[in-house]
Write a structure and sequence with these properties.
Blueprint: H1 13-23, H2 39-43, H3 48-55, H4 61-67, H5 73-96, E1 98-101, H6 122-132, E2 139-143, H7 150-155, E3 162-169, E4 182-186, H8 192-210, E5 214-218, H9 236-251, E6 256-260, H10 268-292
Parallel strand pairs: 1-6, 2-3, 2-5, 3-4, 5-6
Helix pairs in contact: 1-10, 5-6, 8-9, 9-10
């Protein structure tokens, strides 16, 4: 893990705290260290001129403002590893049913710039690479962050082999939404039951009609009612219901699922605990299918 930057508004504390929470749990977890994402994988999705700006730590100030922090050499190294982590999680999920990237989920990054605390879009990069190398024919990206996955939608627009589903707070960032394969905008204050009703209405039908080989899951915890940047009202139990439901829907159809951390803002210890519970919940559901097999 690259050291956190000393300037900028984004708080990097939660990433180490998530790992500490996982290591201190009673769950049997296995850690893997990803390789940095190769430059050509990034350039297959992002504008090579922008990739060059990041690699040389020479990102223009206006783009750094959109991202929310300065893109230093340490950040460059960090995002290369987190992008490699989503690809690795997908590969491990194909072996074990489920695997998680304890970072990333950078769904706001666009072709020629980062945005919203995202530098490179690991979901789009991993999807493109997995299909290009023949690991999957069709990938479903399920984005349940409180913010719309506008970057992922834009970078995969027009592709018949990648489907993007985004459930998000309608009045939250970004102001100008992209067009996902399917968008489900939610009103402010939607609670556990309302959220699960919307998810149940769309997810099973999309899995069955699109017929993916693999699911990538943006498992942000910012739909929580106490999240500093959220506008929804899910509880801890609601997030667990959501995550268990997603994995159950995917694994019950014999498919694999890899998750990325996504958003979560507020007290770093509380947010990290939510992220850790999210991953442990999904792993527990996956373990039940492993036993059945």
């Amino acid at each position: 893990m690259a050291p956190q930057p000393t300037r900028g508004t984004f708080k990097f504390d939660k990433y180490q705290l998530v790992m500490e929470a996982l290591r201190n749990s009673d769950a049997a977890i296995k850690e893997h260290a990803p390789e940095p994402c190769p430059r050509e994988w990034l350039e297959a999705v992002h504008d090579p001129a922008y990739v060059e700006e990041v690699f040389t730590a020479n990102v223009p100030h206006d783009k750094e403002r959109r991202i929310g922090f300065p893109v230093t050499e340490r950040i460059r190294d960090r995002v290369r590893h987190t992008n490699g982590g989503t690809w690795l999680a997908a590969k491990l999920a194909m072996e074990h049913g489920y695997a998680a990237n304890s970072a990333a989920g950078s769904h706001h990054a666009l072709a020629d710039t980062g945005a919203g605390y995202c530098v490179f879009n690991d979901l789009a990069v991993a999807s493109n690479r997995l299909i290009a190398q023949g690991d999957a024919r069709r990938i479903l990206i399920v984005d349940l962050d409180v913010h719309q996955g506008d970057g992922t939608a834009s970078l995969t627009a027009g592709r018949e082999d990648i489907f993007t589903l985004s459930l998000h707070a309608d009045k939250n960032f970004p102001v100008r939404k992209a067009r996902s394969s399917r968008d489900v905008p939610l009103s402010d204050g939607v609670d556990d039951d309302g959220y699960m009703e919307a998810l149940d209405t769309h997810l099973p039908e999309i899995i069955d009609s699109f017929a993916p080989d693999l699911v990538l899951y943006q498992a942000g915890v910012d739909p929580h009612g106490d999240d500093r940047l959220g506008r929804l009202a899910l509880t801890d139990m609601g997030l667990e219901r959501r995550d268990a439901y997603v994995v159950d829907q995917v694994r019950s159809r014999g498919l694999s699922i890899a998750s990325a951390l996504g958003g979560g803002y507020g007290n770093p210890h509380e947010v990290a605990a939510r992220h850790a519970r999210s991953m442990l919940t999904m792993a527990a559901v996956n373990a039940r299918f492993a036993v059945q097999a």
